[in-house]
Amino acid sequence: MRFLIVNTDYGAFLRQLYSQHSTLETAPYEEQMRARTESLFGVADFYSRNLRRLGHEAWDVYANNEFMQRAWAREHGLPVGEPRSREGAKYRMLKRARGLASNTPLRFLKPVLRPLLHVLDSQQAWLYDILSAQISHYRPDVLLNQNIGLPSRFFQEAKSHTRLLVGQHASVVPKGQDLGVYDLMISSLPNLVDYFTRQGVTSELHRLGFEPAVLQRLGEVKKSRLVSFVGSVFPAHASRRQWLEYVCQRTGVEVWGQVNGLPHDSPVANCHQGTAWGLEMYRILQDSHMTLNHHIDMAENYANNMRLFEATGVGTLLITDWKENLHQMFDPGSEVAAYRSPQECVELIEHYANHDHEREAVARRGQQRTLRHHTYYERMQELVDIVGRHL
User: Fold this and answer.
1) At a CB cut-off of 8 Å and minimum separation 6, what does 227 contact?
2) Which of helix, strand or coil describes residue 233?
3) Are both 2-209+380-388 and 214-374 of the same fold?
């Protein structure tokens, strides 16, 4: 089978990636893709490389990476202009105009904003023009969209170039999208599988995993951090914020990730060390004796996120929030530690901080479980079986 995997990247990550490679923005497409893959951010090439190991053809596309996408377009004979990123202040002004418009009733918008918004919309055309050309070029059997926030109307038009349109999602469902455009929705969250099914969309469970090749990039490390937390704190993480504030008040946890909207005197702000993407994130996890996890609110009572497998995969003791399906992936108490309250989380941190051999034994068993049952090679075998039932 032929797979085309469509994804997007955080703007903050892209800015860091290109700032670290001064000439990357003008490099050939494959060189830019190689730098993106080697960053190990998100799922990197974990899907495509393992699909190829299984004998399939697979390609990755990062639809909002303008430098890389325009390089692909040039190399395939498509007319393209200069990346808008070079326009700096002009683009930021237009973006602020759109932000104002999205929060203001249309009848109150000053007429001067309308032409600015039109310009901004026209500047987005490159994204869909190039992505459409890529779908037409690769003509995949399976078009896997890992960002269902991209307009469903675009994928409705793209369906003629693929046999199966699959959406993948495990977070807050974006409003205003026609999910019926997808032939299949996959999710690592059981409650979202149920939600999609109730919406009349065929849906199946497909979990996340760990890529063992990451260990080759990391090498050996002597752990120097007692306990870390790597993750975002956004409005969708209300319970995570409350939990983390309690933990930060009582432990020396290092907090890494995007943290927005916190007062300066917040215990979380005082523990915040900055952001960590890809390889740097894995190094922080591996360098920690223990690392913490807390799921997004909409996960309800289900465990599903990437940290489950990233932390155990690098051999660090994972202390995660208890969920009713956690035992389907790990044995709580033997392979990971699970808490039911912020107070119990702190108790587990204190316990394992004082019991080195027990902590190391749990971490070792967790890693063995992940490398045995939760790799992306295993996940891609499952994906092939899933899509095969729907082709």
Assistant:
1) 251, 252, 253, 254, 288, 289, 290, 291, 292, 319, 349, 353
2) strand
3) yes
Distances (CA, A) of 196 to 170, 193, 260, 302: 11, 5, 30, 16
Q: Return the closest-CA partner of residue 285 out of 337, 342, 363, 351.
A: 363
Q: Residue 310 is inside which H or E element, if any?
A: helix 307-313
Q: Which two tokens stand for residue 328?
A: 């389907």
Q: List the Cα angle 123/127/132 in 5-degree steps.
A: 135
In the CATH hierarchy, which top-level class contains the domain 2-209+380-388?
alpha beta
Q: Residue 41: which of 20, 26, 72 has the closest Cα?
A: 20
| Strand arrangement of the beta sheet that strand 142-145 belongs to | 57-62, 2-7, 142-145, 164-168, 184-187, 203-205
Record the tokens describing residue 243, joined without a space: 């939990």
Please state the domain extents for the chain: 2-209+380-388, 214-374
8 Å CB contact between 390 and 164: yes
CATH of range 214-374; options 3.10.450.50, 3.40.50.2000, 3.40.50.360, 3.90.180.10: 3.40.50.2000
Q: Express each pLDDT in 34-77 by its tens digit.
A: 999 999 999 999 999 999 999 999 999 999 999 999 999 999 99
Q: What is the pLDDT of residues 303-356, one digit of tens each?
A: 999 999 999 999 999 999 999 999 999 999 999 999 999 999 999 999 999 999
